[in-house]
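Record format v2
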Amino acid sequence: MWIYEKKLQYPVRVSTCNPKLAKYLIEQYGGADGELAAALRYLNQRYSIPDKVIGLLTDIGTEELAHLEMIATMVYKLTKDATPEQLKEAGLDAHYVNHDRALFYHNAAGVPWTATYIQAKGDPIADLYEDIAAEEKARATYQWIINMSDDPDLNDGLRFLREREIIHAQRFREAVEILKEERDRKKFF
Amino acid sequence: MKQMPKEYYELLEKLQAVDFALVELTLYLDTHPNDYQAIQQFNQLAQQRKHLKKQYETAYGPLQQYGNSYSNYPWNWNDTPWPWQV
Ligand SMILES: [Fe+2]
């Protein structure tokens, strides 16, 4: 089971109300390489992966849920004081018409999240390579958003998230090596 | 947004810092289960974390529920601020 903790993993601050940045950030909320996709991908793969990497998938999957909450907090803080006029200027008019200021799992272009964003091949190496690629894509997306953002407070949180993707990719690479070692050992004995 | 005292942010960030080290060590140990020094560091931080949690909850209320934290009277789990409100 999971137990919620009433705090963010890392402080989230924003300098000003800026719905345009929120529009970009939604990519990491409900996009293909976003935090929801990441959490659901790893937590779903756990059940059929070899025992040696179940712990890692559980722990990274859980950390992704904490990142999802950080992204939600960023979007919330960037939009909560925006007028409908400001939302319209930021290109969030269609979002506003459908959801007001509520968050929704869609990408920066407004395409709703879909389970086809995540893979589960049942082949441990294939699944872990998919996870490594997903982390690298998420890292790149964070970099693109940082490049688009002029909010130093927001960027501090985004840099934290970008660094986490690097660590996750690293740990998944080690998991691949652990499984390969195990496979090779079985061949010899 | 609820205005919280400076001490709140200081204590919260202290807790976040220790918890971050614990998350980082957890993932590391998931792929390096035989690193004795890392496990020692993990257990030390886990103990430090226990103290910080107690300190934080005494001042600002429960971090977790379902019985993982104590409750004041009246039930204070619902009290603001929630994490996105600070
Ligand atoms: Fe990640």
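Chain A touches chain B through 27 residues (CB under 8 Å).
The two ends of chain A are 38 Å apart (CA to CA).
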